[in-house]
Amino acid sequence: MAEVRTATQFSVFLVNKPGVLAQVTRALAEAKLNIVALTLVDSQEHGVLRMVLENPDGARQVLKKLNLPMTETEVACLDLSNHPGALADVATLLGENHININYAYVTSGAPGGRTTGVFKVADLNKAQHVLKKSGAKHKEPSLRRPAGRR
Length: 150
Fold this sequence. Notes:
Blueprint: E1 4-15, H1 20-30, E2 35-42, E3 46-53, H2 56-65, E4 70-81, H3 86-96, E5 101-106, E6 114-121, H4 124-133
Antiparallel strand pairs: 1-3, 1-4, 2-3, 4-6, 5-6
């Protein structure tokens, strides 16, 4: 069965000015909180920092002390092989099962290594079921395209 896990994603709204991202990441580092994955999207007025951390309770405490607007969302996380098509395989599987991906981001891994995919989906329970049923493995996902579909 697949190692599909849910995780708490923090969306922190940052003023779009120098040093704000450094302030957040420094506070997390000083608390020895490891970031699993993150993405930062900007607009003219603010940026939205979305991140998953190994210790959500610790992250919540640190982020509250910074007094920045923040929301929490449950997301699906799974380990992917770091090779061409790994993300496409997951997106195809979810799409074929009528599960909408609102947004996704992945970590960067060493060539041939592992990476983590973070997926905000419309139906988290269904996505977990589909991904587990696909036979994906924690260490070596079998979400490969069938022969002839490459």
